[in-house]
Amino acid sequence: MSRLSETMKHELKQIQPSSILKFNQEISQIPDMVKLTIGEPDFNTPDHVKQAAIRSIENNESHYTDSRGTDGLRKAASKFLHDKYNVTYDPETQILVTTGATEGIFSSLTAMLNPGDTVIIPTPIFPLYIPDTLLNGAKPIFLDTSDNGFILSPEKLQATIEANKDTVKAVVLNFPSNPTGVTYSRKDLQAIADVIKQYDIFVLSDEIYSELTYGERHVSMGELLPEQTILLNGVSKSHAMTGWRIGLVCGPVDVITEIGKVHQFAITSATANAQAAAEEAFKNGPDDGVAMRKIYQQRRDLLLAGLKKAGFECASPKGAFYLFAKIPANLNQDSVAFCYELAKEAKVAVIPGASFGAGGEGYVRISYAASTEDLKKAVVRIQKFVDAH
């Protein structure tokens, strides 16, 4: 007798466990490995933020909060987003506190999708959006951006929407990008907004790396197209708080109301002391990410120079903490095989580009959310590997 929903069994068969986590787990068994695999800040959460959580515990704030998030956190988040990115969201009706941006993605796609809908997903991209789309009976439409500097062109977007306009429900944007480090200028983003506003569709705009941009200020799709944008953000990357699991979903009132229902039935509410910490981060540490950003930029430049010397070409990384490096032509172009060879022979672990969808093969993602010492060691080992092959 089947123990699973027949519908869910069908959707689950289309999904495989994360290839990124699988690869990371396998190579972690190799001694003396320099791991440049996982996208997690190597900084600690700021002390004033940790103290806010401690006070929350000491004050016995150990009960359910409002499912939408505490009033204080939503107000602090609203001000932070307005001051930083010129977006305006009513903390009472337009902001939802989720358990990380991950849950925000799931709850948003679950609320908006019907079986048979399609979701436009530019690739290479962090693959989480794909299983969430499939689990809801919808179909991803992949747009390979590798021929355009890893930027979605408005022409390609419009042509794809027109070819699928009876089914398209949403377009996913992730910028600054995981895995490429590429981000969108205001001009780029406005051109995409001008296309999307012609249609009755959403844009799911994942801007979790918004505080980690280099050389130019982040522009939010929530500013340019507020009536159609579901904005994702949080404290994981900006304040080195990945383990606290606090994300934000912002958007039009009617949309947030429906997403809030999925969120409520899935998790009830985010952890109380983690919300207190996030409130402190937004309210009294809006620029905590600046010092981290400066160090990330130094690491990026160190790694870029070393990789260039070793014969790698990289997408122009203007945000996040990743380099998407093209494997030199004289080396194995199968990114999975290359990464296993590099791990076993050079003891440097990076993620195969194939894990990020169309346009990713022949590349590797390298995280520079690692110590400068480890990055220097990795550069030396990669150079020796290239010379030996």
Automatic annotation (TrEMBL):
List GO molecular-function terms, semicolon-separated: pyridoxal phosphate binding; transaminase activity
**Could you tell me the keywords of this UniProt record?**
Aminotransferase, Pyridoxal phosphate, Transferase
Q: What is its EC number?
A: 2.6.1.-
Superkingdom per UniProt: Bacteria
* Transferase among keywords: yes
List the InterPro entries. Aminotransferase_I/II_large, AspAT/PAT-like, NHTrfase_class1_PyrdxlP-BS, PyrdxlP-dep_Trfase, PyrdxlP-dep_Trfase_major, PyrdxlP-dep_Trfase_small
Q: Which Gene3D superfamilies match?
A: Aspartate Aminotransferase, domain 1 (3.90.1150.10), Type I PLP-dependent aspartate aminotransferase-like (Major domain) (3.40.640.10)
GO BP annotation list = amino acid metabolic process
Q: Where is the Aminotransferase class I/classII large domain?
A: 32-382
Under SUPFAM superfamilies, the record lists: PLP-dependent transferases
The record's listing under PROSITE patterns reads: AA_TRANSFER_CLASS_1 (PS00105)
**CDD domains found in the cross-reference section:** AAT_like (cd00609)
Cofactor requirements of the protein? pyridoxal 5'-phosphate
Q: Which family does it belong to?
A: Belongs to the class-I pyridoxal-phosphate-dependent aminotransferase family.
What's the protein here called?
Answer: Aminotransferase
What organism is this sequence from?
Answer: Secundilactobacillus silagei JCM 19001
